[in-house]
Write a structure and sequence with these properties.
CATH superfamily of chain A: Immunoglobulins
Number of strands of chain B: 8
Mean pLDDT of chain A: 94
Structural class of chain B: alpha+beta
Shape of chain A: elongated
Radius of gyration of chain B: 20 Å
Largest sheet of chain A: 5 strands, mixed
Shape of chain B: elongated
Number of strands of chain A: 8
Largest interface: A-B, 30 and 35 residues
Low-confidence stretches of chain A: none
Distance between the termini of chain B: 48 Å
Strand order of the largest sheet of chain A: 2-8-7-4-5
Number of domains of chain B: 1
Mean pLDDT of chain B: 86
Oligomer: heterodimer
Strand order of the largest sheet of chain B: 2-8-7-4-5
Low-confidence stretches of chain B: 21-25
Largest sheet of chain B: 5 strands, mixed
Helix content of chain A: under 10%
Distance between the termini of chain A: 38 Å
CATH architecture of chain B: Sandwich
Radius of gyration of chain A: 16 Å
Number of helices of chain B: 1
CATH topology of chain B: Immunoglobulin-like
Number of helices of chain A: 0
Structural class of chain A: mainly beta
CATH class of chain B: Mainly Beta
CATH architecture of chain A: Sandwich
CATH topology of chain A: Immunoglobulin-like
Helix content of chain B: 25-40%
CATH superfamily of chain B: SoxY domain
Chain lengths: 107, 151
């Protein structure tokens, strides 16, 4: 369903800096409101949760409802205390989990 | 006034048109009520205040399938001056909830942008929950040219 997510995290930051992170994942986000050509409702299948954590600490989370557009996009901020790894997780209605990681270096 | 056949016809057509219009309006009103109820559920019955939260949305969205939307809340994001979550509603969609953002001290700033679907011209509402138990709300009307819920 979903393809490799696209994530933008700066490569470096200064200690304590607040950075902007952008993420996008390909997903149809089938709302459950649409009908197929025979008039039968198409079952809902969306990504229902997105999380971003830095070294195990939650930075940002979002609960998604079907009103979020296809290919869900998020832009949010994160405070960078030290060099480390951001971990991103998307949870699908069908139980799939999509994950990605990005490193950041504090200079 | 004498009631002629023509008058009766006119009245019947008018009444029928009104009934149809009424039936079309009611689901939207239900959505607005659902939204108000959902906001009260979120705040635990406290009426949210104005200010602090800013909702940014286009005045006119040509394509209701992907409407960019941003929320930001004034906060130090430390100690008690922390935004815990922001909930978004679209009060004219078949199902009003859009998303809930959760922030932590690690967020650095209570700011988030995403893209949403809007079925038609309607209000988008954002409510922020602060750590000290207060709530703030902002509302924007977005005019939609082509709706984004399909089917």
């Amino acid at each position: 369903m979903a393809s490799k997510p696209r994530i933008k995290v700066p490569k470096t930051a200064s200690a304590g800096e607040v950075i902007t992170i952008k993420t996008l994942i390909s997903h149809e986000m089938e709302s459950g409101q649409r009908k197929d050509k025979d008039g039968n409702p198409i079952p809902r299948q969306i990504i229902n949760k997105f999380t971003c954590a830095f070294e195990g600490q939650t930075v940002f989370e979002c609960d998604l409802d079907p009103a979020i557009s296809a290919n869900p996009y998020f832009e949010f901020n994160a405070k960078v205390p030290a060099s480390g790894t951001f971990k991103f997780t998307w949870l699908d209605d069908d139980g799939s989990v999509y994950e990605a990681e990005e490193l950041i270096e504090v200079k | 006034m004498k009631l002629t056949r023509r008058h009766v016809l006119g009245l019947t057509v008018g009444a029928a048109a009104f009934a149809v219009a009424g039936a079309r309006i009611s689901p939207a009103l239900a959505s607005v009520e659902d939204t108000e109820k959902a906001i009260m559920d979120f705040t635990g019955g406290i009426a949210p205040g104005a200010g602090k939260i800013t909702l940014t949305a286009p005045e006119i969205a040509e394509n209701g399938n992907t409407v960019p939307i941003s929320v930001s809340v004034e906060s130090a994001m430390e100690g008690d001056d922390l935004v815990e979550s922001v909930i978004l509603f679209a009060d004219g969609n078949p199902s009003p909830p859009v998303a809930t953002f959760h922030f932590t001290e690690m967020s650095g700033a209570a700011l988030a942008t995403t893209r949403m679907r809007l079925a038609k011209t309607q209000n988008v509402v954002a409510v922020a929950k602060m750590k000290d138990g207060s709530f703030f709300m902002d509302k924007k009307e977005v005019k939609v040219t082509i709706g984004g819920c399909g089917g």
